[in-house]
């Protein structure tokens, strides 16, 4: 938490007013004259949800949240809104208070463009976090709304995790999304989806329990190596693979047993 410079290398995309501007397209700034000003948050109150550290602040105002981390060389702010899974992260020089880096997160994912500035505020470096993913975050959100009736932009629905897996030599440059959702019927149960980051195709789906220590992506790799995944594969549950028809039959059988 204290090593702000190192942590900031993993920045991604976000928005200062997430509730109002989460869908607004960002524009690349060629220079910046933004400075850190603690008075910006003078009307905010302490967020008692978090344990306070000596050099950190956790503040809130209605649905807005900000975490401020201080170190010898820099100040990092992380702004968010409890309704949405976006975070805007900025890093300022501790000596000049000038902004030198910024980016946005969507869940644990760095998205869009990270920007870095010199001591004069001139844009000197950009990192495109979306360059490998032809199937965009926007398309992923649309897919889950349409096919699974899940709104990934609604952060109030549960403890969800969304990650990107960068290109892997084993898969010849393929990239993936991993989506883990808490099941309504059991807070310890997770639904896992592996999505192709280029085509958007569902590659692997399973259920698991949080404390099992299972690694679904590794399972997918093993099944792929052994050519165990059928063409009509739907999901894996309790160690068994199911096609859609097999899963429908399984659910009907379970329903009969539970109904007596």
From TrEMBL:
It comes from the Bacteria. This is Uncharacterized protein. It comes from Flavobacterium procerum.
């Amino acid at each position: 938490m204290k090593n702000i410079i190192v942590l900031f290398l993993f920045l991604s995309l976000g928005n200062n007013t997430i509730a109002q501007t989460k869908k607004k397209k960002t524009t690349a700034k060629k220079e910046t004259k933004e400075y850190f000003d603690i008075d910006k948050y003078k009307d905010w109150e302490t967020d008692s949800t978090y344990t306070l550290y000596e050099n950190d602040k956790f503040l809130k105002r209605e649905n807005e949240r900000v975490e401020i981390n201080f170190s010898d060389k820099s100040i990092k702010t992380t702004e968010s809104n409890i309704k949405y899974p976006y975070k805007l992260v900025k890093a300022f020089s501790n000596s000049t208070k000038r902004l030198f880096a910024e980016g946005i997160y969507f869940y644990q994912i760095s998205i869009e463009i990270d920007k870095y500035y010199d001591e004069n505020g001139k844009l000197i470096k950009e990192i495109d976090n979306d360059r490998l993913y032809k199937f965009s975050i926007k398309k992923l959100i649309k897919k889950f709304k349409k096919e699974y009736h899940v709104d990934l932009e609604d952060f109030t629905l549960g403890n969800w995790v969304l990650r990107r897996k960068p290109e892997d030599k084993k898969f010849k440059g393929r990239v993936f999304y991993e989506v883990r959702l808490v099941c309504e019927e059991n807070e310890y149960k997770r639904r896992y989806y592996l999505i192709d980051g280029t085509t958007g195709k569902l590659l692997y789906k399973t259920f698991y329990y949080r404390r099992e220590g299972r690694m679904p992506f590794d399972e997918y790799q093993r099944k792929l190596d052994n050519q165990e995944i059928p063409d009509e594969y739907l999901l894996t549950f309790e160690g068994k693979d199911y096609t859609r028809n097999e899963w429908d039959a399984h659910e009907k059988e379970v329903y009969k047993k539970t109904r007596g």
